[in-house]
Design a protein that fits this description.
The chain has about 190 residues and is α+β, with helices and mostly antiparallel strands. It is built from five helices and eight strands. It has helices spanning about 100-115, 120, 125-135, 160-170, 175-190; strands at about 5-15, 15-25, 25-30, 30-40, 55-65, 80-90, 90-95, 135-150. Strands 1, 2, 3, 4, 5, 6, 7 and 8 form an eight-stranded antiparallel beta sheet that branches. α4 packs antiparallel against α5 (about 175-190). InterPro entries: Split_barrel_FMN-bd, TR_PAI2-type. It comes from Oscillatoriales cyanobacterium SpSt-418.
């Protein structure tokens, strides 16, 4: 989640799914996973927070897998991937209700994504900073359920897995190479 922190954040509002694509800060406090971030106040998704469960989807490396890489001729194309699903009930953070929590959330975001910007942010005029923070709804979500998902051809033979991994490792696409690396780790851990 920290390595692939730009997540798809999904909530249900009035029976309709809403999805936002947002950077999130993932941290562990007392063995509890917490996610924090913010949405534009104009984004209605935040109105679902606290009342309904939300889902943050973190997508890792993924790659197309050609059936030509398999020993068995009767095969079809597929996709290998790594993802994490984190569920919880986001707690709303507004500047007017909790200025200290809003400042903490912004500082964590800045520390995570561009720590050198922190001094610049804090030296901006108070009116500008307050205007920016009044235009967002911050949130913190305690993760109540965490699911790791991956498909790395683990249902295929060792030979097929090695063929796919080798092909991906030799790809010019760095994301495909990352899948190859994970497949290689998976193959090595199976040997132990």
């Amino acid at each position: 989640m920290q390595a692939n922190s730009f997540a798809t954040f999904v909530s249900i509002l009035d029976g309709v799914p809403y999805a936002s694509h947002v950077p999130l800060v993932a941290r562990i406090e007392d063995e509890v996973v917490k996610l924090s971030g913010h949405l534009a106040k104009q984004n209605p998704q935040w109105q679902a927070f606290e009342a309904t469960e939300s889902l943050a989807i973190f997508t890792g490396a993924h790659a197309y897998i050609s059936p030509t890489l398999y020993e068995k001729r009767e095969s079809v194309p597929t996709w290998n991937y790594i993802a994490v699903h984190a569920y919880g009930f986001p707690k709303i953070i507004k500047l007017t209700d909790s200025p200290e929590l809003m400042e903490k959330m912004i500082d964590e975001m800045v520390d995570t994504y561009e720590a050198s910007y922190k001094n610049h942010w804090h030296n901006m005029p108070d009116g500008f900073r307050e205007g920016m923070m009044n235009g967002i709804i911050g949130f913190e979500m305690v993760v109540t359920r965490l699911e790791g998902k991956y498909k790395l051809s683990q249902n295929r033979s060792q030979t097929d897995q090695q063929n796919v991994s080798n092909t991906l490792l030799n790809s010019s696409d760095p994301i495909a190479q990352a899948v190859g690396i994970e497949m290689q780790r998976n193959l090595e851990s199976d040997k132990e």
